[in-house]
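As the work plan foresaw, our protein records have gained a structure token line. A representative record is set out beneath this paragraph:
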Amino acid sequence: MVTQITKSWPETLSMLDRPVAETRIVISTYNRSSILSRAIESVLSQSYRDWELFIVDDNSTDKTQEVLDSYRKRDFRISIIKNPTNIGAVKSRLSYLLNSSSKYLAVLDDDDWWEKYYLENQIDYLKNYPNCPMSVTNCYKYISGSRILVDPTKFIPFPQVLPSLTVMRASLFKKLGGWDTITFPFPHHHVEADYWFQSCFFRGKSLGHINQPLVNITVTKNSMGSNRLLNIKYLELLMSKWQPVLVTDSINKKWSQFNLVLGIHKIEAGVKGGTKSILEAVRWDSLNIRNIGALVLSLNRSVFLRILKSYRKKEGVI
């Protein structure tokens, strides 16, 4: 088990000679040469040392390989792979997560970075709660020059289990076959949320939560979460997959929450059916003041959008 780097280790070791690290980290990167080092350096500076890092270059066309060359001999725990074609971040990560012999799995987006004690806190939590499938931490989101503190467990209809915030138990991830890239085709939006449903919600397990901002998330107007039409498409795929179970969930009201969020996305995108979806949310949870308020506001789209914009800015959602 690797606990620290010592001078007795050679600068590079073959993958077969390396000891199995307790935690495998995967960074998939594409044309982010100008900021990639920030993510890598945040891994190298972790207080927790028992990790191995796989960096997958998803066939970048910029200077990514030049950046990665500087890390090839710097730390024997780093492995660098280049995809022959561009296959997307999710598939680039998936095989290196499923084929890992480590106990824990972590992902870091190439434009995000961790605080020094991120992994130490996450791994300690999973060790202290052996029945917990996965855990997240709070984060700072950087949006248009503003830094916003975000608690990912406060969102509906599912927590924001963003890749950079989450550490998973490897045994369960492999048992469940990882992320479902068949139901959710490229760009595989909401595969992490789908995995949360499989690993936590439907198994009656709690999502671990560290109430500290230990991750920094870069949010841009090009982020998948900001594309309302994309959100609608993949939210409907998620609803279709889990509807038989969700409609029986009288305690958590998940089906109502799904319809509320779907309706909001439709109104924002200017597509038909927004008010109808919110009506469905009210039908499944008629006493929820949030549903009733959204229904009333949906009758005036301009007012609805102004209030929603203010809310999203406060909560770190674009």
Summary: The radius of gyration is 21 Å. The chain has two domains: 23-219, 226-315. Confidence is low (pLDDT under 50) at residues 1-14. The CA atoms of residues 133 and 310 lie 34 Å apart.
